[in-house]
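Quick question: who can interpret this fold?

. . .
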Amino acid sequence: MSMLSIVLRNLTRRPIRSLLTSLGVAIGIGAVVSLTSLTWGFERSWEAVNRARGIDLLVVRSSSRSPLPSAFAGSAAATVAALDGVEAAEGVLNDMMSVENAPALLVHGWRPGSFLWHHLRVMHGRWPGETEQAVVLGVIAADTLGKAVGDTVQIDTEAFRVCGVFTSSAVSERTAVIMPLERLQSLTSREGMVNLVNVRMSGVVDAPAIERLRQAILARLGAGFRVYDASEAAQGNIGLQLAKAVSFGTSVIAAAVGVVGVMNAVLMSVFERLHEIGILLAIGWRRRRIVQMILLESLCLSSLGGAVGIVIGLAGVRLLLMTPVLRGQIDAEAGPVMLASVLSITLVVGAVGGLYPAWLGARMMPTEALRHD
């Protein structure tokens, strides 16, 4: 009889216990998969927006500890634009706002005619004028709000006319509302203020050029500002940092619970089979082989739970992305690297959970083990 067949026979002796143990691991792994894929998707969404806009650097206030950067004087954009190596610098204002009965939507204030509009494609209507009391809606935002060109939409305390519906390669922009910068500044009582400067560089854009311009911007603007490479901009977002912390904490808790569950199940199985283990030792099985058998049982339990947990997690993410709060806001990221990391966690859970039962089973003397019924 092969080792694998012995292991499977041992696990199927108590099928309910084995299934419940694997289910406990699956629930924990499912939570890890869901949170991790959403966190990675959130980060990728930020990166996709910056790539689509052709942004090389972003300037924000370093003192902000909110999901959106705090506001500062819009003259900072002109200061940055005057530096060598800068093709264009645009100050923008972003805010999460109440839009009629829909969940809070991200509202952008952009200067009409700036390069930020170039990557967007108008599907219906036109872009708003500089001082016009009008907005354009991303296709998902328009669908969520049930609005079309010519309709009126209530944003905070003011009514705006929908003059266009657009689409973008970045999913988070398709759920956004865009209005002229001056209109959003007035609506939020932040006249002349922005909370982000988007910088497009001229000439060769490489790591040394980016670093030189970063230092030049910091020297010109003074203390209180931070400059991010577009590829690392999401790292400065407190919302993403919090999501990563929650994801890491959940992974640790899920792994700890999985280890305890697997250890308990395998330990009970070992106690029930002490007599059998004694016979195996008496007929010549090496203690190393006993360890291998018990560890393989533990790994089988955790691997089954991990496989089921991945399916549960991916299904849960799809359901979450269909909810009004998250629909269209981000894409889930569940690539090979993330799945390989989750599988590694399940193997660690199985190995650690089986160590003590394997040591206990292998250290038994045959005469002592044979006395157990």
User: Anything to note?
Assistant: The mean pLDDT is 83. The chain has two domains: 3-46+240-370, 63-223.
